[in-house]
Amino acid sequence: WNPFPQDAGQRELGAVQCRSCGMLYAPGIPEDRLQHLRHHRRLREGLRYLGWKQERVVAEFWDGKIVLILPGDPKYAVKKAAQVLEIVDSELGFPSGSGAAPEQSRIYLFINPGKAVLGCLVAQPV
């Protein structure tokens, strides 16, 4: 067993894990590279939070804030909650649409100063 295999100039043949998103992919395979770029774009767009005039901030911290989204909030807020939930479900391996419905839940999002969603808590009536 050789812990330092020779790559013969083909460094991109093996699978690597992206430090940013954690996805495992083979950069030497065009389909894998494209899949990885799509994954990054989906995460970046879905987890970006630009803020709203009537946002409901429930707590503020030195490293971010917590925003609450309720079922009766404007459509753009409920839509953002649905986007975040779709990404969360996908990352956890749940089938699309099987998770919580934003129209029946209280959704708390943790937003960092860079305007990105870093956390999500979904509270549903029992």
UniProtKB/TrEMBL annotation:
InterPro entries noted in UniProt: AcTrfase_ESCO_Znf_dom
Family annotation (Pfam families): zf-C2H2_3
GO biological process: mitotic sister chromatid cohesion
Gene Ontology, cellular component aspect: chromatin; nucleus
GO terms, molecular function: protein-lysine-acetyltransferase activity
PANTHER family reported for this sequence: N-ACETYLTRANSFERASE ECO, N-ACETYLTRANSFERASE ESCO2
Domain N-acetyltransferase ESCO zinc-finger: 7-42
Protein name in UniProt: ESCO2 acetyltransferase
Keyword Transferase assigned: yes
Gene field: Esco2
Superkingdom of this protein's organism: Eukaryota
This protein's UniProt keywords: Transferase
Record organism: Drymodes brunneopygia
